[in-house]
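Reopening this one. Same input as before:
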Amino acid sequence: MSEAPAPPSADDLPRVLEALLFVAEEPQPVSALAAATGVTDGAVRKALERLARDCESRGVRLMEDGQRFQLVSAPDCAPYVEQLLGNAAATRLSRAALETLTIVAYRQPCSRAEIEALRGVNSDKLVTMLEQRGLVDLAGIGDGPGRPKLYRTTMKFLEHFGIGSPRELPPLPGVEEPLAEAEI
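Same output, byte for byte:
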C-alpha cells in the first residue's frame, strides 16, 4: 500500500477538490473530501467556496445540497449538453409532478401525508415517479404515527432546475420567512 500524499496547500486545495469531485460518481460530503486531502473540514469548506466562485465563469458549477457537493454542467450550457447526449436529459414533468416536487423542495423533509394534505389528492404515484427519476429520495423516517417516510430533493433536482443549493430556491409568494437552515 502506498503512503498517503502530503496535504495540498491552501492555494492548491480548490484545484485538488475539483479533481476529486470530477472523478466522483456520487456527490461527496465534506468529511470524505477532508479525509481524502488530509485537511480539516473547515479548510475544505473554504476551498469549496473559492472553487464555486472560480467555476462561475466556466462550463461547470459546484452544486451542494446542504451536506454533499458535486460538479455539474452550467445551466446555460444545457442546450449543448442535450445536443451531445440527446433529448433524454430534457424530460418534462407534468403540472402535478411539479406541484409535488415544489412541496418537497420547500418543506423538506416531508411525508406523503403532508404532500397530500397540501395537494388535496393522493400523491403516491407521483412521489414514486419522482423517486425513480432521482429528483427526490428518502431523507429518513418520521416520528409520527405509522413512522412515515420523509422525502427530500436530490442533487439531480438541483441540476434539473439549474440551482446550486436549496437555499437558492426563490421565495414563495406570500411567505415572509425563508426556510430555516435546519430545514434544508
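So the earlier flakiness isn't reproducible anymore. For the record, The first helix runs from residue 13 to 23.
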